[in-house]
Amino acid sequence: SFKQHDEAKLTQKLLEDPSARPSLSLIALKGKTPVGHILFTQVKLDTNSDCRASILCPMAVIPEFQKQGIRTSIFLDPSLHQVEAARATGTDRIELYTERFAHNYAIGNSDAIKPYTDCAVLAHELGMGINAGHDLSLKNIKFFKQNIPNLLEVSIGHALISESLYLGVENVINMYLNRLES
Fold first, then answer.
1. Whether the Cβ atoms of residue 72 and residue 92 lie closer than 8 Å to each other
2. Is 63 exposed, middle or buried (0-12, 13-18, 19+ CB in 10 A)?
3. What percent of the chain has pLDDT over 90?
4. What is the Cα–Cα distance from 23 to 91, expressed in whole angstroms?
5. Residue 68 has what pLDDT?
6. What is the pLDDT of residues 77-94, one digit of tens each?
7. Considering Cα of 112, then 80, then 95, then 177, what sign does the dihedral take?
8. Do 40 and 23 meet the contact criterion of CB atoms below 8 Å apart?
9. Which pLDDT does position 19 carry in this prediction?
10. What is the rounded CA–CA span in Å between residue 40 and residue 18?
11. At what angle do helices 114-125 and 80-89 cross, to 10 degrees?
């Protein structure tokens, strides 16, 4: 179900990397025909810690279904090299991993946005959409959106749930929409 041979190579490299253990592989079927594949891979999030997570990477959808609006996206760190590599796989979108930005922004380093802005500009130039997620919150999302050109979607699930415990779901959703629209 890979659009290009590079996606299969990326999957193979993930499977061979001892620090990136596949944790779940799912195949989407239409009848008995495979039309898509996703692989959840365990990764080490920070080279200075033992923090591990599972990420959805890669995801592939056959071109016939992409034409019906089913898109592919690759989750990556803000690295121009990773954006170029994502383009080589034929992916439709990238999702920028924003943990490093959120941490730095919280301690007053607003310059931490620069690599994210640079990656968004390159991704757009290469014809890919831009999503972002992880650790975006009511405190940083407005600044992030104002500085990321062509941002299409954000993943705010964890923060939204946490903030909703204190402020109420409907209120928090309206607060996010307000920050994203301004």
1. yes
2. exposed
3. 36
4. 22
5. 77
6. 899 988 998 888 778 889
7. positive
8. yes
9. 62
10. 15
11. 30
